[in-house]
Structure formats: structure tokens, C-alpha cells
């Protein structure tokens, strides 16, 4: 289902305005000790960058200066990783996955929110978004070099303990996490980066910011106006293997975002090739195999980056037709979606929800 994200791949392009809103702020001298903390640093008074969750991030404001320090953001993101990282063996999530039967969940700041949002999307999409897909992702070799695709018998065995519904392979009662199958594991890779963006957005709002842009690994939340007085401008990459997002970048369309989260999930950069056959990193949790359809990328705009992140993954599993039916049947979700896919002649085509037009930059 959820494609394992390339640690430096960013499917969306931010066009950061180069003009500054306050010349005096640009000339402000920032003390050296306040410019950097561990893996976070100030680019200028209005821009902060760094690394987190195996990827990069950017925080920018069009106001005179950021009201948060690199140290504050570094510690904030460290705390987030200590709960939800799937790569840090000391994280709450890793300890939970290693538990065999019962695990007492400590007081937490982020885990409960992530779990609850994930469970809501899992139920809403009838399992197209399923955080328990981790054992299948491992079996397909996306965390290591895959010599051979897993055999049918291996996939079928793993499917016996995949399924996020409460009471099947796990359940949470108060602060007690119970496993009904010792090999059951959770992966929040397809929502955690989006959630971290939302948490940072809330942090900036509490600090007094009204205009800001936050991007973590391609997941985005933007609020207010950029330095030009418009919504924050974001580009959707054209889905092709040559369009690596760095040395070469071709843009499919531009969007202006204000007060919304946005995420893109795609298969055109994320695949494994063996003997001429390409295997997508998007695993269908119901079949246990990579999806096999013509959808190349899907961009979702939602009320939060976490929801955009999760639904983008779900729609990559569903494919264009099923996803469009889902969107039409669930107008209450307020999702705006942009699909890029190959038609029967191999040509790039697109379809999008009608309200997506309001974001287009003309």
C-alpha cells in the first residue's frame, strides 16, 4: 500500500519568493549561537531548514522574521521522532512493534493522534490505507536489496497478520496495547511526515505566526500569504523517471495554497526492477502485492497535511477510477485531488476534482 518514501525525494516544488517584506529584517545580524542547533539552521531571518525523519524540511514566513529558534524546532522534531520514528530503535513505535503480547503505552504527545487519524482513514477507505502493511513492505525488500520477489506462500503467510482493524491482530484499551499476533507491526510512514507538518504549523501559530509555509519530505501546510501577497505557490512535478526533482524538474501545474495541507504520492520514482519487470513500492494490503495500474501520481489537498498524506497513499492503492468514486461518495471529507496517469496509448493524462481549479495559478 504505502510507498516507502525516498529520503530526499520531494514530489512538490516550492517556489519561494525571493523578495523580502522588510529590508530592515534582512539586515538583522543573528547571533552565531542562534543560527544553528544540531540538524537545524537558519538560512536567513525568515527561513529555516534542516533534516528530520530521514529527509529535509523547510519553514518559511513572509513576516519580518521567524519567531522560533533552530533549537526549539530541533528539540520539537526530536521529540516527534522519539515517538513515531520507524527507524529509531528507541522510539515508542519501535518498542511497540517489538513487543510480543502486551505493551503499556506511556504518556505521549504525538502517538495517540497519529494512531487515531490512521484508524479513521483505514476505516473510511475500507483498508486501502493500512498501517499494518509493514511486514509486507519488508518482505518485498524495500528496506534492503531484494534478490528475488517473495513467493506466494510467503505473502499468504504474512497476510495472516496484516489488518489494522481493532480486535483482529491488536487492540488498545486505555493505555494498554495488546497484540493478538506477535508478528503484527505498524508503520506510520505514510502519515507521520504529514502529521509532523501539522504539529509544526500549530507550534508556529501558537508563537504568533499568521503567514508561513512548512514542508517536510514533500508534505506541506501553508497559511496566509507569501511575500508577494498571494497564496504560497507550489508546483506539481511531471511524473517521469527523468524528472528527478533536482538536476531536472518539469512542472505539470502550479497551485496557490492558503490554510490547507497538500501531499503527493507517486510510483514513477519508487519502484524495484527485476528481470525487466517493475514492482511499485505501493503495496496493496489486501493482496500483499505491489499495485499494478496506470496511476503515476496523486496530489491531495486537505484540511491537514496528515490527511492529505494518508489519502494520497490510499488513492495510489485504489487507482484512478476507484479513488474518484470514493471522493464523489465522501464530499464531507473536503478533499481536492489531482491525478496523473498513463492512458491506454502510454500518454500522460490527468483528471482532477472540480474544486481543484480554484488552486490553479493562471
Q: How would you sum up this structure, described in words?
A:
26% of the residues lie in helices and 27% in strands. With 362 residues, it is α+β, with helices and mostly antiparallel strands. The chain folds into two domains: 12-76 and 190-359, ApbE-like domains (T-fold, Roll); 88-179, T-fold. The chain has a ten-stranded antiparallel β-sheet with strand order 2-3-4-5-9-10-13-18-19-20. Strands 1-11-12 form a three-stranded antiparallel β-sheet, with no helix packed on it. Strands 6-8-7 form a three-stranded antiparallel β-sheet, with no helix packed on it. A hairpin with a 2-residue loop joins strand 2 and strand 3. Helix 4 (111-124) packs parallel to helix 8 (305-318), helix 7 (192-206) runs antiparallel to helix 8 (305-318) and helix 8 (305-318) crosses helix 9. Residues 1-26 have low confidence and may be disordered.
Helix/strand layout:
Blueprint: E1 12-14, H1 23-26, E2 36-37, E3 40-44, E4 47-52, E5 55-61, H2 70-84, H3 92-98, E6 102-104, H4 111-124, H5 134-139, H6 152-159, E7 170-173, E8 176-179, H7 192-206, E9 212-216, E10 219-223, E11 232-237, E12 251-257, E13 260-266, E14 271-274, E15 277-280, E16 283-284, E17 289-290, E18 295-302, H8 305-318, H9 320-329, E19 336-342, E20 348-352
Antiparallel strand pairs: 1-11, 2-3, 3-4, 4-5, 5-9, 6-8, 7-8, 9-10, 10-13, 11-12, 13-18, 14-15, 16-17, 18-19, 19-20
